[in-house]
Every structure is written in structure tokens, then in C-alpha cells.
Design brief:
five-stranded antiparallel β-sheet; single chain; 51% strand; 1 helix; mainly beta
Length: 180
């Protein structure tokens, strides 16, 4: 029901009452952007960046030959660090990692679905030190998810830090986020 990419639609409104035309030919262009994978970044406070990955399958996997499992792989560059506990494991406390199921509404995806429990976060999120890869295992490829996490800036941004995410299991281009 969605076309991937950018669609532009023009809607025209004509209003009539029983005796006359009240409004004729008023139109508005509507732009609909749809992507399977999107990434944004905000800076909630100095030295902290909040990353938001949105996975929206739009039923594209229904009729295609695809893998049963997908994962988002987000490469964390030097100069950014994830929150970890005293043993060096990912720190899932204080909203450092949040995953929410997104539910389709008539106006588009809304983050009104259930948030993952602490155990679900631990089961779905891992980190590979060697490649500096943060991995989110997509629990159900046909459902939409919002994956949020925070990083600390550990080095001067200089010319900027970039962060790239890919969806493993589908041939999509990596999604880059603006420099921090």
C-alpha cells in the first residue's frame, strides 16, 4: 500500500451547497516520503547524541523472496562511545537504549506501540567491539520499530563525526546521518 520513495499528490477541493458553488478548484500538493530505514540524530545536551533509527517494512517483504531474519547494523565511529556498565557491557538503564514497536495509523506510523522490556532489549541488542557494530535483531521483519540509543562524544568533532546504519538481509543503500 506504500510506494518506496517520494510521491507527490495533488488534491483538489470543490464545495457546493444546494444553490451555488462555494469554493471551486482549491488544491493542495501533498508530499509522501516513505523509506524502509531512516536515521536521525539530536543533541539533547553537550557531549551527548541521541540516535533514532526507524525501520518501516511497508509490506515490501510480503511478496518477495527474502530472509526470515533481519538486523540493523550501526557502525559507531571513533570519537563516539555507547553507554556501558562497569563490566564493559551495554548499559540498558536510564533510557540509553529504547525500542518501540510502531503501529500503522491512517496518518502513517505512530510510536504508540509497546516499548521493549529490559529483557527484550538485552535479547535484541548486541555490540561487536572489533567492528564497532551496534546490532539490533529485528524480532518480526513485518513490523515497524523505532530504535533509539545515546552516545557520548569522546573526541573533538573537528570536521564532524558520521554514523552509518545498514539493514542486513536486504539490498539497500546505507543510511548516513548528518555530521555531529
Amino acid at each position: 500500500y506504500f510506494y518506496l520513495g517520494v510521491c507527490r499528490y495533488a488534491h483538489t477541493l470543490n464545495l457546493k451547497n444546494s444553490q451555488e458553488t462555494v469554493l471551486s478548484g482549491s488544491s493542495q500538493e501533498v508530499k509522501v516520503t516513505s523509506q524502509i530505514l531512516d536515521k536521525t540524530m539530536t543533541k539533547p545536551e553537550d557531549g551527548i547524541l541521541k540516535w533514532t533509527l526507524s525501520y518501516r517494512p511497508y509490506d515490501v517483504f510480503t511478496n518477495a523472496k527474502v530472509l526470515d531474519e533481519y538486523r540493523l547494523i550501526d557502525t559507531i565511529p571513533e570519537g563516539l562511545e555507547l553507554y556501558r556498565d562497569s563490566q564493559g557491557n551495554l548499559d540498558f538503564s536510564e533510557g540509553n537504549f529504547v525500542v518501540t514497536e510502531m503501529i500503522l495509523t491512517p496518518s502513517g506510523y505512530s510510536v504508540s506501540g509497546p516499548a521493549f522490556t529490559d529483557q527484550q532489549l538485552r535479547d535484541a541488542i548486541s555490540y561487536e567491539n572489533l567492528g564497532r557494530s551496534l546490532i539490533f535483531e529485528v524480532p518480526d521483519k513485518n513490523k515497524a520499530y523505532r530504535f533509539e540509543y545515546r552516545t557520548m562524544i569522546t573526541a573533538g568533532s573537528g570536521s564532524g563525526l558520521t554514523n552509518k546504519v545498514v539493514l542486513e538481509g536486504a539490498s539497500l543503500k546505507p543510511v548516513n546521518t548528518a555530521k555531529a
